[in-house]
Amino acid sequence: MIKEKSPLEEKYKLIADSIRAYPLQFKQAWIEVNSLYIPDDYKEIDNVILCGMGGSALGARIIDSLIQDRLRIPFEIYTEYYVPNYVNEKSLVIASSYSGTTEETINATYEALNRGAKVFGITTGGKLAEVLKENNIPGYIFNPINNPSNQPRMSLGYSIAAALAVLTKLGFINVLEEEIDNAVSVMNETLTSYHENTRQDNNLAKIYSTKLIGKIPVIIASEHLTGTAHAIKNQLNENSKTFSLVFDIPEANHHLMEGLINPKKIRELLVFIFIKSSLYSKRVLKRYPITLDVVEKNGLECHVYSPYSQQKLSQVFETFIFGSMVAFNLAKEYKVNITEIPWVDYFKEKMKK
């Protein structure tokens, strides 16, 4: 007789299935956005602003740190009710809201339209989809068939690929098909390595999750993986219900190291995870062992995670899947409801009154 899954086990399965679907999300969005019509005058702009909140902003953060050394025009993320003062008819505002109901993003979209900016939307529906249709605005209104959990934070394959495809389609960056194929291949390999059924002694994500029980993870990253570190922190917050911190090198070397003395209790609570990539610039790489030395000299626990793939886009997803599975396993250790976000929902209800 097959034992039925408990309601909590079903929720874990939904999240695990969404993680396993990252490659499918990525390919779906890349192909579908590349088939869309975007007017030629969208190429005649001076800057790009991506507006989004929460899970919808995570992909933007990842893209921001990933493509800064390749993008031909300024790119900025805005997580506010409004758009920057400089936005005008020579700006492209990408409005990203998974649900299409995010009030900050909707408000920013209206403001961008009032300024005469070019607008492109990324959403599954809701009010944002209505605004796009009513104003004849191009956008990617997608069916999230590869996100069984239907949680915005688990849809990064969609948001990253969609924004990359738009920027590539408009000629602001050149992302090669070979990079896309390599990223998908690395994602599938990484998912196999960190599968929840893989034994703990062969599963780095499970090993790390046990190190974080009762601890506060402090994630350190640089350059193209800075946005990925923020996305991992989000997964720890929402999936594991765990407080977490993120710092980037070199900025952290100018202040954080002096903040490791007090209170003394931090030695019992903090666990530093250094995300060290061989693709970081030479001077940044030199900082990692020195920073690690300083943190350890202050009596704090440290671990180093290094992605194996050799392209930046591939490293982004390899690292993000690792972090997603660490958060997933930690949630199981804590036996929390991994899909529900009761305090965020409570806050939203209060804001409606």
From TrEMBL:
Instruction: Report whether Secreted shows up as a keyword of the record.
Output: no
Concerning Gene3D superfamilies, the annotation shows: Glucose-6-phosphate isomerase like protein, domain 1
For whether the record's keyword set contains Lyase, the answer is no
GO biological process terms on file: carbohydrate derivative metabolic process; carbohydrate metabolic process
| GO molecular function annotations of the record | carbohydrate derivative binding; glucose-6-phosphate isomerase activity; mannose-6-phosphate isomerase activity
**Pfam families in the record:** bact-PGI_C, SIS
Q: Which InterPro entries would you find in this protein's record?
A: Glu6P/Mann6P_isomerase_C (IPR019490), SIS_dom (IPR001347), SIS_dom_sf (IPR046348)
> In this protein, which residues make up the domain named SIS?
38-178
Protein family membership: Belongs to the PGI/PMI family.
Q: What name has this protein been given in UniProt? A: SIS domain-containing protein
Q: Which organism is it from?
A: Candidatus Woesebacteria bacterium RIFCSPHIGHO2_01_FULL_38_9b
Q: What is the lineage of its organism?
A: Bacteria, Candidatus Woeseibacteriota
